[in-house]
From TrEMBL:
<protein>
    <recommendedName>
        <fullName>Spermidine synthase</fullName>
    </recommendedName>
</protein>
<dbReference type="InterPro" id="IPR029063">
    <property type="entry name" value="SAM-dependent_MTases_sf"/>
</dbReference>
<keyword id="KW-0620">Polyamine biosynthesis</keyword>
<dbReference type="GO" id="GO:0006596">
    <property type="term" value="P:polyamine biosynthetic process"/>
</dbReference>
Amino acid sequence: MTDAAGAVVVERAEGVGGELVLRRDGGDYEIISNGVFLMDTRNGESERLLVRWALEALDGPAAPVRVAIGGLGVGFSLAEAAGTPGVAAVTVVEREPAVVGWHDGPLRPFSRGALQDPRVRVVRADLVEWIATADATAGAGGGFDVVCLDIDNGPHWTVTPGNARLYGREGLARLAGLLSGRGVLAVWSAGAAPGFEELLRACFARVRVRPVPVPRGEPDVVYLAGGHRG
Ligand SMILES: C[S@@+](CC[C@H](N)C(=O)[O-])C[C@H]1O[C@@H](n2cnc3c(N)ncnc32)[C@H](O)[C@@H]1O
């Protein structure tokens, strides 16, 4: 079936967070979740920089590095982490089984087969709930050095209302609780989120805000934070 924009619906699935649609437009794919356009395969620069900049911001000994990523999407962030020397383990938290399944099919080239990498573990869970579990706080044994959050279009534009809890003071404290002593939290946003930046600065000793220009419109923004004030 072709929609008004000329894209073909490849699959519809009943998702945990509402209906999921995978669309193909030429050689590219788009994920729509709960009626919200979430991700496509056209660019991916800021999703890769989310991981690269967080890894670069790490203080202390270079390796081995443990990374957590929420969520999987088309896999650009995961592929970046898995392809970075020194990364010993990557935990990806994704609540939609259909999204994980698409990486055995059309999305596999974009995650570059990383789901088959023995260093990569996919947790099928809601990140909001998972961060409170022992599995999360065990952090692959000693905390994650990098936690990358990209489950929404940003702190001000969440795919489902419950996700908004992650961007408040309590959610940030829980995310910080997953980090190792030197750990860095990285948050992706489509556009600046000034209120969120203010809260980050109140909660963390070190905050950096890095815009990523996009072909059209407002730049994407990567927020980096370390040194939770507790
Ligand atoms: C914007 S996409 C991720 C983009 C990813 N960085 C990439 O490189 O493709 C958001 C992903 O997070 C997932 N997601 C949304 N809410 C979630 C939640 N509460 N827990 C876990 N995954 C979630 C979505 O199903 C989707 O796969």
